[in-house]
Design brief:
The chain starts with 11 loop residues before the first helix and ends in an 8-residue tail after the last helix. The longest helix is centred in the first third of the chain and has 37 residues. It is built from 15 helices and no strands. The protein is mostly helical.
């Protein structure tokens, strides 16, 4: 069993980095699942990429529903662990898993029953692309529950200070995906070439493999999960508290892909190649926000435990350390996308008429990378204090502003680039505003509760 990091004691930067590195590795592996798919599917052409990208929107939407239980469960569990109330922490973890499982199963049923109508929303031009997208969506829907369990177990195990175990399990899943992706896409011997459907099966099976590994782990855990009874009775009170805390984040997580779907429909008006550019470009760009998201989970657990232990000074120092690290990372990603965008994009699509569109996407989105990283850190910090509403309001408002901005800018001489600028500029605004708001919140929090500080 991996060694846990003590979030309440020790050097703050060392503690935070020890917790964050495996989480960031896990986040990169999550991204690698999609990148591996894109590398192989890209060899089938931009039409296949557009099909997978369209269906992937609904998988992205599924995470919004699971955030409802994951965020509330993670924060409550971490705060109770910090207050040394382990049994109560187990109750929150149990109810979060049970609630999220019910939501995941319900979402799976909707995807399987309505997949054709859902894909039809995007008005794709090529009937072959439509059929491929429908088939892909049906298969990956079978892994929605596994995906939720993996996210839930990763979050809860991380609250105990153990971020290495999720990293190990996700690595195993990635290796499985890397091996079976080309095998199922292109076929070998008696195995038929399934094209995009093969990528869907490889990803779904890999997700379930990781879930099985997590279930084996929690059966042996003697810290938190020994107090979790997966088939026990759900507590109305615990579920209500989880929903109250997780609802703002869930609304944001659900609305974000919905808004992106509307924008994707605008992108589709420029052709299927434009859809493929957005899909591949967003996967490359996700290197920045996946790392930021991983650090967000780390700072969430760090602040929640120290807040539960009434050590606000340590929580504040952890936040400042995270901001410094993510600022450096964001600047690096900006330089990478602006100056190496062409080389990166050609790793996935080599069609000459599509490459310039991809380079333009990466260059424009490159300017917002640091601010996107700031958004992630401040989201995690707010949630660690149990304040999920402020980041959700900012996120929903400014992300929704992309729709009118995209309509206006794309109608100018910018054309398709106007849509990319609407995305980039909104990220700049979100990162800046959230940073200013959280600094103000933290300043007042430290002034209001000086008795709770522990001077190190």
């Amino acid at each position: 069993m991996a060694k846990r990091v003590d979030l309440l004691q020790g050097n703050i930067m060392t503690t935070l980095v020890q917790l964050a590195l495996p989480i960031m590795g896990t986040a990169l592996i999550q991204m690698a699942y999609n990148l591996v798919d894109m590398v192989w599917i890209g060899k089938l052409g931009s039409g296949a990429v557009a099909a997978v990208g369209t269906a992937g929107m609904f998988m992205w939407l599924s995470t919004g529903f699971t955030v409802l239980s994951r965020m509330g469960g993670q924060v409550h569990t971490a705060q109770k662990l910090g207050a040394d109330q382990v049994v109560e922490a187990g109750k929150y973890a149990q109810n979060a898993i049970q609630l999220g499982t019910l939501l995941s199963v319900a979402y799976t049923v909707v995807m399987l029953v309505g997949c054709r109508s859902l894909i039809g929303f995007f008005h794709l031009n090529d009937p072959a692309v439509v059929e491929s997208a429908v088939q892909y969506l049906m298969i990956v829907s079978l892994g929605i529950l596994a995906s939720f369990l993996n996210q839930m177990f990763t979050a809860l195990i991380t609250t105990t200070g153990n971020s290495k175990t999720p990293f190990y399990f996700m690595t195993i899943g990635l290796v499985f995906n890397i091996v079976f992706d080309p095998l199922l896409i292109f076929g070998l011997g008696p195995i038929p070439a399934m094209k995009a459907a093969g990528a869907a099966w490889a990803t779904t099976l890999a997700q379930w493999l990781v879930s099985i590994l997590f279930l084996m782990y929690i059966r042996q855990d003697d810290h938190l999960f020994c107090h979790v009874h997966l088939f026990g009775r759900m507590s109305k009170q615990h579920c209500l508290e989880i929903v109250q805390l997780g609802l703002p984040s869930a609304l944001q997580s659900c609305l974000f892909p919905l808004i992106s779907m509307v924008i994707a429909r605008q992108v589709a008006s420029f052709g299927d190649a434009a859809v493929a550019v957005q899909k591949v470009g967003s996967q490359i760009e996700s290197v920045a926000w996946m790392i930021s998201d991983g650090f967000s989970v780390a700072i969430n657990s760090f602040i929640a435990q120290n807040y539960g232990a009434k050590n606000l000074q340590r929580a504040g120092k952890g936040y400042r350390a995270a901001m410094i690290a993510m600022t450096v990372w964001g600047i690096f990603c900006t330089l990478l996308l602006i100056f190496c965008g062409g080389w990166l994009f050609q790793l996935f699509i080599s069609e000459p008429d599509v490459i310039p569109m991809g380079v333009s996407y990466l260059t424009i989105l490159g300017f917002s990378q640091m601010f996107m990283c700031w958004e992630g850190v401040n989201n995690g910090a707010y949630c660690g204090f149990g304040r999920t509403l402020p980041p959700s309001v900012v996120g929903i408002t400014l992300t929704a502003a992309r729709i009118p901005a995209a309509l206006i800018l794309s109608a100018t001489s910018l054309g398709l680039d106007g849509i990319w600028w609407s995305i980039s500029l909104s990220s700049v605004c979100k990162g800046t505003l959230l940073t200013l708001l959280f600094w103000r919140f933290l300043h007042h929090k430290l002034k209001e509760e000086p008795a709770s500080l522990t001077i190190e």
